[in-house]
Design goal:
mainly alpha; Double Clp-N motif; two-stranded parallel ribbon; 10 helices; globular
Amino acid sequence: MMFERFTKDARAVVKGAVEQCEEAGAQTVDAEHLLLALLDHGAGRGSFALAALGLAERRESVARALDEARRRAGLSQAEADALAGLGIDVSEIVSRVEEAHGVGAMAGDRKDNGWWGGHRSFSRGAKDVLEKSLRIAVARRERSIGDEHLLLALTARPGVPAEVLADHGVTYESVTRVLGGGGEVKAG
């Protein structure tokens, strides 16, 4: 694949995402795992951008927001709001399902210890982030894919990670500004 173009920091984030997935007992590595691994990495240009934007010390808030979305079966808040406009109360549905089947039942992760383990595959969303990071690096005429490209891809791809990042003040534009050194950087 394209991993030979990944920098040491980007590879560490991808490896960290696999570890996040394993710790969560999830079957597939999702874009959310990439975001958490990026927050935990602490080195590289992407981590620098997150720190400059005030997100590094707010990891728990990000993790909570990702957990809430996971409990909603991966629906973003915007999607839940759209369904509410149609008279569908997602939080009520989640409550009923969890009452009948246990907390986290809609997340789709089986946490049985008998799972055969080993290799974790990447979800379509995680693959999209990796592919988008390549496209961003190429568009910026950069030879390698760094953790900053992973962060830019997470902010550019619609979905829960981008929504959570935006809710915490991290957007494609703010990351680009920090990485380019131009403009004022606002914390948090």
